[in-house]
Amino acid sequence: MSANQLRQRQDVPEEQTWRLEDIFPTTAAFNAACNDLISRGQAIGQQQAVLLSDGATLYTVLTAYFQAEALADRIFSYGEHLYNSDMTAAAGQAAYAQAQQTITAFNTATAFVTATLPQITPAQLTAFYAAKPQLEDYAFIFAQAEKRAPHILTAAEETLLSALGQSFRAPETIYNKLNDADIDFGTMKDPHGNTIPLSKEKIYQLYQSPDRAIRKTAAEKFSAAYAKSQYAFAEALQQHVHTQNTLAHVRHYPSARAMDLTEEFVPESVFTNLVDTVHEFLPSAHKYFALRKQVLALDPLYTYDLSVPLVGEAPLKPTFAQAQEWALAALAPLGEDYLNHLREEFNNRWIDRAENTGKLSGGYEEDVFGVHPYVLLNWSNTYRAASTLAHESGHAMQSVYADASQPYWYSQYSMFIAEIASTCNESLLNHYMRTQYQDNAKVKAYLLTKSVEDLLNTIFNQTKYAEFEHFMYTTDAAGESLTPETLTDKTAALDAQYDGPDVAPNPWPNVSWARIPHYYMNYYLYQYATSKAVANTLAQRMLTDPATAVPQYKAFLSAGASDYPIEIVKKAGIDMTKPDYIRETLQVFDQQVDELADLLTK
C-alpha cells in the first residue's frame, strides 16, 4: 500500500480505534438489546390508559421509560459508531439500520409519555407528589412539560410523528452518504510531484501549503467535487428545511427558529443579539483580512489563501502522543480530578483517531450514559488536530461530570451550552502554548494567528452560517425553492459582507453550502458563536481567579440538563440574554489582531 493511500478499516491498528465492546461485547448482545428495547416499549405502551391514574403508576412508568431511553441511547450509539467508522462496510450499515428501526419502533410505542405529561394539572401534580414523593425526582421534567404544553399534540398525533422519525432523518442520511461515501475529490500532485489521493483532511492540510498553485488546485478540486452533485445536495437541504418548517407549523410555532430555540428554552433575542453584535465588529474582521493581504503580499487575496500560515510553514507538527501531553498541561488549571478523567479517555480507547476509507469525516463526541463518552477524530500531525482533540475532550469531560452528578434524565446537557466546554479547552490550549513559546516570535505569531482565526471561525463564520441557515428557512417558508443557484448566490453575498473588500472570491462558483453538515442540525450553528464567547470569558477567569472560577466551572459541567441552559450559564456569572459577553470577546479579537500586526511588523 502506498504511504499516500487511505487505509482500509481492517488495516487500522486496534489502539487507534474505539472499543465498542464497552457498549455491547458482541453483535449477539446488541441484537438482544434491540429485542429487549422493543419489548420494553410494548410494555410501556400498555400503560397509556392508566398513566395518570395515580402517582405510583406515573412513577413506575416514568422510571421504566427513562431506563429504556438509556438503553435506546446505547443501541443507537453502537450502531452509529460502527457505521461511522466505515460507512462502506455491510456490518456497520446493518447495525445502524437496525438501531434506527428499533428506536423508531420504541419511540412509536412510547410517544404518548411525553405527549401526556403536559396534560397534568397543578392540582394533579400536587396529589401525585403527596402519594408518591419519589416523583420529585422528575420535578424539572414536569416543569419543562408544562412550558411545552402548547406545542405537544395528541397522543395519536405524537405517535404518528414518532413513526415517521426515520423519514424525517432521511435528508441528513442522504447528505452523509453523498458527503462521505459517494464524494470523490480525485488526485493531484503534492509539492514533491507525487500523485496523492485527496480527502477532506488532506485538502485542509494543502490549504496551508506555501505554494499558491497547490492551494488553488486543492480548493478547485474540493469545490468541483461538491459542484458535481450540487443538485442532489440542494434537494437534500430543501427537503430537510421544508420538513422542519412543516413540523413547526404542525406544532403551532411561528417559525422553525422559534421551535428550535424554544425547545432549548432560549429566547430568540439571543440569536438576533449575536447577529447584530457581530455585524458591529465586522470592521475588525476586515482589518485582519487586510493584514493577511499585506503580510502575504497577495493581490488579489483569494478565499483559498485564508488558511496559509502568516509565518510560513506551520512550525508545530505534533504527534497524537504530543497533543495528549499538551492537552494535559494546558488543562492543568482545572485540577487533578479533571486530568485523571482525561487520562482515562486517552488510555482506554474512548477515541477513534485513524483516517480510513469510508470513515465519517471531521470529529465529534457522543456520550453513552453508564459506559463512557466516545470521540471520533481523523488525526493529522497538525496544531489544528491537537486543538480538535482538546475540543472534543471538552465535550467528553462535560459528559463525564454530568453523568457522575445527574441521573440519566438530567445528564444529557442542552445543545445550547454543549460548545462551551469544548471551546473553553481550545482557548486554554492556545493560551498555554503561547506561554511556552513566549520567546519564540515565529511560533508565538503562529499561535496568536490561530487564536485570532479561532475567534474568526467560531464567532464570525458560524454567525455567517447561522444567517445563511435562517435565510434557507425563511426562503422555504415563503414558498420559494432552494435551488443551487439561490444557495450559491446567497453564499457569495454573505462572504462578501463578512470578508470585506480585501478578499476576492475564488474564481469559480461557491458551492460551500453543500459541505456543511450542521445545516441538518436545526439552528445549531449560532450556538458555536455564543458558546465561544462564553468560553473565552470562563477561560480567562479560570486563569486569573482559579480559586473562584474553577469550582464554578465544574458546577457548570456537572449541571447536565438539571436547569434551563440560560440559568446554568447565568449561575456562572454570564447573562446570555444580553450582548455584553459577545462584545467583550470581540473586543479581545480586535486587540489580538492589533497585537498580531505589531508582531508581524517587527
From TrEMBL:
Superkingdom field: Bacteria
> Which UniProt keywords are listed?
Hydrolase, Metal-binding, Metalloprotease, Protease, Zinc
Residues forming the Peptidase M3A/M3B catalytic domain are 206-586
**Gene3D superfamilies given in the database record:** Oligoendopeptidase f, C-terminal domain, Oligopeptidase f, N-terminal domain, putative peptidase helix hairpin domain like
* Residue ranges of domain Oligopeptidase F N-terminal in the record: 119-185
Q: Which InterPro entries match?
A: OligopepF_N_dom, OligoPept_F_C, Pept_M3A_M3B, Pept_M3A_M3B_dom, Peptidase_M3B
Q: What is its EC number?
A: 3.4.24.-
Q: Entry cofactor note text?
A: Binds 1 zinc ion.
Q: What class of enzyme is it?
A: hydrolase
Task: Provide the function of this protein.
Answer: Has oligopeptidase activity and degrades a variety of small bioactive peptides.
Family the UniProt entry places it in: Belongs to the peptidase M3B family.
Task: Spell out the protein name for this chain.
Answer: Oligopeptidase F
Source organism per entry reads: Schleiferilactobacillus harbinensis
Lineage of the native species? Answer: Bacteria, Bacillati, Bacillota, Bacilli, Lactobacillales
